[in-house]
Amino acid sequence: MASSLSSLAENLLTPEHEKFRETAKHFVTGDMPLVARKGVYPYEYTDSWERLEDTRLPSKRSFYSTLTETGIKESEFDHAKEVWSHFNCRTLGDYSDLYLKIDVLLLADVFENFRDLCMKTYNLDAAHYFTAPGLSFDAMLKFTGQKLQLLHDYDMLLMFENGIRGGLVQASKRYATANNVKTPGYDETKEKSWIIYQDCNNLYGWAISQYMPNLQQAIKNGLIVEKVHRVIQFNQSDWLAKYIDLNTEMRKKARNAFEKDFFKFMNNAVFGKTMESKRKQLKIELVSCERRLQKCINKTTFKHCTNYNENLNAVALENKIIKFDKPIYIGFSVLDISKTLMYDYHYNVMQKHYRDKIKLMYTDTDSLIYHIKTTDFYEDLAANHSLLDRMDTANLPSDHPCYVAVRKKEPGYFSDEVDADIIPEFCALRAKLRF
């Protein structure tokens, strides 16, 4: 749950506070409006035991954090004063105990509601798992009922391992400025141009649901096959599609940002689990004995050692025996299939329409940044179904001429990453470093 406790607790708010089951066990109904939200605490002010004996709530400026370089809002300070008064706190220590109690109960409620969500959607209890990817992988197996065959032929395993290629990330054109009526400093004497930033909805989720057109696409775009080195025969089906569709539909129905991100993650996590490298896994041993430390260092599987203090070290050891029990052929296929969509969109949609008027400036796995010489890109979209039919424009304003709601968050469609805002200038120093 990669969100703050404050936002997670806010997602549970209802007029009756019925989702705060654990908190309600410790507080009466009249207390709930005050305890069903994340409070604030002056962490840096509390720098000694004596501070906890203070009989008044510290001033607002005492809540300032040098770590985040932020203070608290007036409404948050008012809430802290109301909590102090309502619960009759006599000292800062009383307030501290109450603050920690509320934090723990809120966290319990958030996780219990998360368990409810997982039980309702997948009929699996999240409390039985260490990580969300582990939960997603089991949910996928349970929902699809598919039995996956593991690789027993070592040469075949090596073929898949060597064939894994990550997403394409590159800066093809490092700098460009847009020149159109909506950009600052527009020069009508120069050719009009736009900078467009597009992102593919749930690229890996789309790829997981597809068949394998890789070779056919490459041949259509000019690849000449001179020799076939190796062939693997297998039964092909889109068996993962219904699991992807389930999470896509749940994402559309999501009531808050956490649920929206969670169901997207559940799709992507399946891919990540199939890409898990067993070779890179290490055994970590905490060692406090000097004799044992020397034994570990002398082992042929010794990788590295991290010293915490004179009595504690963490020794990383490679595994003597590697058990290849992950279906890496799924991740291998997904990576290659995902590239076919990006290639198809670039060569057969954008470049086919604009020809020499378009330059690909930057690409990052599932996103493309273009510099296009045109009067108005959005007029082009509205007038050409070959462009608009590949776009998810549900994130544009409802009165926008290109707005179409039916493809909202549909995997495989491209959306405007800046929601129709204007990008006046683009600069990329290298891959993963752009402005």
From TrEMBL:
InterPro entries: DNA/RNA_pol_sf (IPR043502). GO terms for biological process: DNA biosynthetic process. It comes from the Eukaryota. This is DNA-directed DNA polymerase. It comes from Macrosiphum euphorbiae (potato aphid). The lineage of its organism: Eukaryota, Metazoa, Ecdysozoa, Arthropoda, Hexapoda.
